[in-house]
C-alpha cells in the first residue's frame, strides 16, 4: 500500500499530512537565521533566567541554546557566567572561548572536585574554553592525575579533543578543527562548486561488489577554502555501503592533482564479504544531489546544531562521542574536515560520515556513526 500523503515542498511520500522532517528542519533553520537583534536578545535573556532547564535538556531553553550557538553564534559571556553560577556544565559547548574569569572558575572547580563524573564534565567545558591556561591545566592533570582519573576511561588529552584540539606527550598543542565553517546548500541555477559530494567511480568494493564512490571531492584552491591549506584537490573515496561496517575507518591517500589510492580495509565480523544494501536508485540519488558550497562562512557550530546539514570545517555533530583518527602513516591525530549526513543524500539511510585528513601524509579517513 502506498503512502497517502506527500511533502508539499519536496514531494517526498509520507504517512502523515505535513512537511517531511528535512523540509521542516530547513524551515525552522531559516526562521532562526532571520531573527532580529531584538529577538536574539530576548532569547539570550530567557536562557540566562532559566539556565538550569538547559542542563536538564528541557525546551524551549535546550533548543534555544543550540539555535543561538549554531545559527547565530550568539552565546555571550553573560550566559556563560550565569551557567557557571548555577553549576551548569552541560552542554560543554556553553563555554566555548569563555572569558578568563569563567576559565579560572572552571579550573578551580576541576582541581577541587573529587567526583569523576563532575571532573569529566568540567574537562569538556575547559576544553571548549580552550586557551593556553586551559591546556596547561589539562596537561598537568595528565602528568599528575587526581584520584578520580582511575574511574575515567581516557586521559585529559582525549577530553581536550572535545574542544577541537589536543596536545602531545611534550605538551605541544595540536589543532584538530578549523576556525572557519561553510555549509553545503542546494544549487538553484546549475551553479558550479569547488566541493562535490558523491561522484561515481568505475571500481567496485572488494567486500560487497557495490560501487565505490568519491564521497567528497574538494578543490582547496578556491578562495573560500584557502583556510584548509590544501593547494589542490582532496578526494575522499570509500564504499558507501560498507563504511559503516568496517573495523577501522576507511582510508585513502590523495594527490593534489585528483589522484586516489584506496587502502585495504577489514569488516567488523572478520569476514571478507558483505551484502550490498544500496540499490541502483540510491546510487543515482547519491551522485545526482544538488549540494554546492555556500557563498559565505557560517558559525562554527552550524553543523553541530542539527542532523540535516553537510558542512566543511567548524565542529561536527558527533552522533556518539568525538573521534579523531590517528593517521595510519605518521600516527598523529588527523584534522576534522567535513561531515556528510547520509539521509540528505539517500532516503531510508541514517547516520553521519565524518571525514578527516592528515595534511603531512595526504591521507584521508572516513568513519560512520549512527544512533
Give an overview in words.
This is DUF1963 domain-containing protein. With 371 residues, the chain is α+β, with helices and mostly antiparallel strands. It has two domains: 37-175, no CATH class; 181-369, no CATH class. Helices cover 28% and strands 20% of the residues. It has ten helices and 15 strands. It has helices at residues 21-33, 37-49, 51-55, 61-72, 77-85, 100-112, 116-129, 132-143, 156-160, 280-287; strands spanning 5-6, 13-14, 165-167, 173-175, 181-186, 195-204, 211-219, 233-238, 250-254, 260-262, 291-293, 311-313, 335-341, 352-358, 363-369. The strands form four sheets. Strands 10-9-15-14-13-12-5-11 form an eight-stranded antiparallel sheet, with no helix packed on it. It has a three-stranded antiparallel sheet with strand order 6-7-8. The protein has a two-stranded antiparallel ribbon with strand order 1-2. A hairpin with a 4-residue loop joins strand 14 and strand 15 (363-369). Helix 2 packs across helix 4, helix 2 (37-49) packs parallel to helix 5 and helix 6 packs antiparallel against helix 7. The longest helix is centred in the first third of the chain and has 14 residues, at 116-129. The radius of gyration is 22 Å and the shape is globular. The two termini are 29 Å apart. The model has no long low-confidence stretch (mean pLDDT 94).
